Amino acid sequence: MVCKKFYLIFIFLVLSKISSQDISGVIIDSLSQNPIPFANVTSNFNKNTITNEEGKFRLFKDIPFTNKDSIYLSSIGYNSLSLSVNLTDEFKILLSPKIIELETVVVTNREELTAIEIINKVKENVKNVFDFDYKSKRVFRRRIIMSDFDKANIDIKKSSIKEFDQIFMDSINKTIPKKNNFYVEVLYDFFGNINPDNQKVNILKSAELINKDNEISFKTIQSKIQPIVDVKVKRDSYFKFKSGIFPIDIDSEGLDFMSIDSTDNSQLEKIKKNKLNEKKDFNFNNRNYIKDISNSYIDYENKELKYEVFKKSRKFNFKIAEFSYLGYEPVYIIEYYPKSSRGKYKGRLFIHADDFALIRIDYQNIGVLRNFNFLGVFYRLNKRLVKRIFKKNENNKYDLYFAENYYESSFGLDRPLKIIEKNKNVRGRRKQNQLLMQINFTGNNKVKTEVIFIESNKLSNQDFNSVKEIDAELPVELKKYDPNFWAGYNILEPKQILKEFKIDKAN
After folding, report:
1. Do 379 and 428 fall into the same domain?
2. How far apart are CA 391 and CA 129, in angstroms?
């Protein structure tokens, strides 16, 4: 009997080990040998994904693969390919460019249409080709923020606290991180349709990778300043900040310079409250982002595409650049650019030639989008790239499948800052500590957000109403990228730079 139980346990463990599998590969142009980004990877076991910028993908199946399992690979301008599942570590797949002959174009185009006529047909068919029904969707989001400081200087002009001299500030400058990279990955369940009033989102799992060296650096700054402040500044003091013409009053507690008193329940309660607020903000912001993405492309009430190129078509010039195929589906590729020099964006539209559905839109800015410069503070939004890919779902209607936003911005500050110590219990105009400095720093940000709607299923109104939004915990902090963290889930395959990201323990 004991032996039988042991045997059953052994079988269970073996089956658990092989009960789930994944396949991975890289899709490459057979002629140029370059990777093919954003290629569709679909399967006969209802798991889908898209290749990353390096042409790589990974598909997970929660039950063992069989000899009947296969994947289907397609990309605009390439011959599609169907393959049996191969359980090698990573396999290389070659797609050959599709040759489009003139005769094919003539046969496919039942009527000869101009670019603007095609655009008008897209607008007319929105309500017929896009899905407005309730759905439950599995959504994955990756956000990458890369910050660089070109310059960070603090020059002391005057100080009544001798410890705060230029040598001290130079030592502070050296501890300020010149680079700061931040990664966050979140998996969601989305419920609802493209009506903003009918959407619910729950976070299933999340992870973040933050270079803690930067946090250590800031703690180092505080550890250097803290002892001086504790000795030189009275507990009842507050600080008046003056930067140019703007004075600001801040309690010493608000600066977080003072040491935390473990016996002060109010301070401890404040810390606890801040942590709860952080969790609430994380859930709120992530929910809103997915909801905004889900209803960003169609005006639900009017059944219209929200993109400016369709809402204000008269402001753009259009040109049919190519006629191509996505698998066996004919596709118009239309380029557009603004008629006026004041126009901000140009782009490319990928339109199904039979049903005139928008299946992809790429656009980018032409010039600087924002340029703020006032009293020594500047911010400039230099680049914005947007990509949206739409795909047919189980209803044979189009849904948003993939979204990418990319921003590049620069920022800076060059202005004086005066810090004056005041004390609530000191009367009269007794001389207080003062610190006058010139702050000068410049830097730039690069932010990329990728969202993929991995799975989609029908959802009834009743099931939607029964869904409750529950706050998830804050993301798990990882010291390096761990592919096992997402074992059992289909996600967008990360780029190599993310896979190699880790924290140097020496620091």
Report:
1. yes
2. 11
